[in-house]
Design brief:
Blueprint lengths: L5 E2 H4 L3 H4 L11 E6 L3 E7 L12 E2 L2 H15 L9 E10 L3 E2 L3 E12 L2 E10 L2 E11 L4
Antiparallel strand pairs: 1-2, 2-3, 3-7, 4-6, 5-9, 7-8, 8-9
Length: 144
């Protein structure tokens, strides 16, 4: 059976309805495409109004790990209505700063392996089709 890429408009809610995070810590602005339980593509626009942007107009690199973790939580959830998994570990985190005001972050997360209540997700952040950050995240499901 062939899998189908589902744009957000077809059946998925914005990240605010699927993640337990709220302003100011909900970092994903919108989801572009989702395949429930397998992968997600999201977007984050860095603006001057972001509360985490410093005086020089840069986004701290540690927040890229959080953006990838939020995308990984959405990618690992098999369907809407299921609570997202909790972040248990970050491996192989690499970041090429600076991320500055005006950048549009394309965030991808893909489930690599499931074992028991845990899941391994590979996530990446790209700006203008150039890799800026990547990590392998381990999440643990609350529902199992």
């Amino acid at each position: 059976m062939a899998s189908e890429h589902l744009p957000l408009d077809s059946c998925h809610l914005p990240p605010a309805f699927q993640l337990p995070h709220r302003y100011p810590f909900l970092l994903l602005d919108r989801l572009l495409m989702v395949e429930p339980g397998r992968w997600v593509v999201g977007l984050k626009a860095v603006t001057r109004n972001d509360p985490f942007v410093d005086a020089a107009g840069a986004l701290p690199p540690v927040l890229l790990a959080e953006v990838m973790a939020q995308a990984a939580g959405l990618a690992s959830a098999p369907a809407t209505g299921v609570r997202p998994a909790l972040l248990a570990r970050i491996d192989r985190y690499r970041c090429r700063p600076p991320i500055v005001v005006g950048d549009r972050l394309l965030v991808t997360a893909r489930v690599v392996r499931r074992f028991g209540a845990s899941v391994i997700v590979r996530a990446a952040v790209r700006i203008n089709d150039r890799p800026r950050a990547a990590a392998e995240l381990v999440l643990h499901s609350q529902d199992r």
